[in-house]
Amino acid sequence: MKQHPCYAAIDVGSNAVRLLIARIKEGDHPVAEKELLLRVPLRLGSDVFTLNRLSDESARCLTQTLHAFSNLISVFQPLDIKACATSAMREADNGLDVVEQIRQQCGIELEIINGKKEAELIFANRPDRLLPHGCESFLYIDVGGGSTELNLYTDGELEVNESFRLGTVRLLENAVDKSEWGRMQDWIEEHVQQKQVLGIGSGGNIGRLHRLAKRSEQQAMSRDQLKKVYQKLKVLDESERVTRFKLKPSRADVIVPAAKIYLSAMKWAGIEKIFVPKFGLADGIILELHRRQQENGHDDLLRNQTSLLH
Asked: Which residues form the Ppx/GppA phosphatase N-terminal domain (predicted)?
């Protein structure tokens, strides 16, 4: 039986580092089918948002994690590999030094991407397929550990987008300037509020909130349902959230500030319903690699694979 192409994606975020190895299932819309998904809660943002750099210990842990990922990737022998880093690495004064350290010690070329590129990769999953027929505009809300990316799409095309220094880890570290809340509200009121839009949420926290609201992937979560889950969580301490809602400790603290950001964005945009597809940045990276494979050809990617992991 012929196997679908295999690819590897690494997402170095502010709250966690992920490895996704997936095969592409062809169809009207190619889909990344997971072979392996690993999440390591390194929380790089705790350093960066307070010290403006990665500590030696965090850099060491990140390098060791990516070295382990490299060994796993070599077992699967993917056609291509891509590693991306987002908000924490963007802001770390020693980010480029750590990238070079990873290249030398792990053989992985880690690319620090901006908010716009992050949005493009996530949208490669075509989340608008979940929306009701006839929906013209939607606001894509991606809340990470270090930043919130807002992307307004109309008729399937990106109309305008912006990145805000509002993130779950940043909030926990009291490293958010109050003016950033106002900047996000002003942006939404300028670009979104006059439109009839639905919401699409991205990120591990909104996925967990969506499940706690007992919604399936095809079912939208209302703002009221999200607010009820938020109110139940915020009155508990972290250990109670772990016990009562079966959350991982690395999720139990960040899920509350995440819910606050989503609720704020939805309120300001007049969004009553948000859809939550089960994919994120790593899935988008996989789809981009597959698209590149189709454009460049199999042989070019095998050469790329060999050069990336040496």
From this structure: 39-290
C-alpha of 76 from chain center: 23
Give the structural domain span for 144. Answer: 126-275
**What are phi and psi for residue 286, nearest 5 degrees?**
-60, -45
Together in a domain, 271 and 154 = yes
194-245 pLDDT, tens digit per residue, is 778 889 998 889 999 999 999 987 899 999 999 999 999 999 999 999 999 9
Instruction: Give the separation between CA 261 and CA 281, rounded to whole angstroms.
Output: 19
Q: What is the CATH number of the domain that holds 90?
A: 3.30.420.40
184/230 Cα distance (integer angstroms): 20
71 and 26 part of one domain: yes
Please name the amino acid found at residue 305: Q
CA distances in angstroms from 46 to 15, 148, 158, 176, 206, listed in the order given: 8, 16, 32, 12, 21
